[in-house]
Amino acid sequence: SAAGVFVCLLEYPRSRRKKGSTMERCGQRYLTAVLKVFGPLTRNYYVRAILHAALAVPAGFLLSTILGTVCLGIASGIYLLAAVRGEEWRPIEQKPRERPHMGDTIKQPPSNPPPRPPADARKRPPAEPGG
Question: Could you tell me where the Basic and acidic residues compositional bias lies (predicted)?
């Protein structure tokens, strides 16, 4: 049960993506601060793979915990694969929002006129009376 709490606390904070944006989970910033304190122990995926594999060994001896053992083994394999590919856990840090300057927000006006239909399509024939 303590191992389950440990795994949940380790896995809850999401890592920042290399490209794009990452949505932060509710309350993640508090656990992120805890994980940042431990530095490379929590950031390195090789360490996480070894931790998950070590937690899976004692659970494998009981029939009632065999499903948890399989899940921890799969997680260990995924972390090992990610570590081989050079990935690591990076905290999501809030960037201070910069207010845009009014001069920077105005772009150059368009240089080409907007597209218009051909001249004969713009001319409408006169409406016939009674028609």
Answer: 90-104, 119-131
Q: In Å, how far are 32, 45, 69, 70 from 77, measured between CA atoms?
A: 23, 10, 12, 11
Task: Indicate the number of domains in the chain.
Answer: 1
Distances in Å between the Cα of 131 and the Cα atoms of 24, 52, 121 are: 66, 83, 21
H helices within the chain, ranges in order? 2-11, 28-37, 40-43, 45-59, 66-84, 102-105, 119-122
With respect to residue 56, please indicate whether it lies within any of the assigned structural domains.
yes
C-alpha–C-alpha distance, residues 66 and 118, integer Å: 74
pLDDT tens, position by position, 81-127: 999 998 888 877 766 666 666 666 667 777 888 888 777 776 666 66
Q: Which two tokens stand for residue 77?
A: 């394999």
Partners of residue 88 on adjacent β-strands: 44
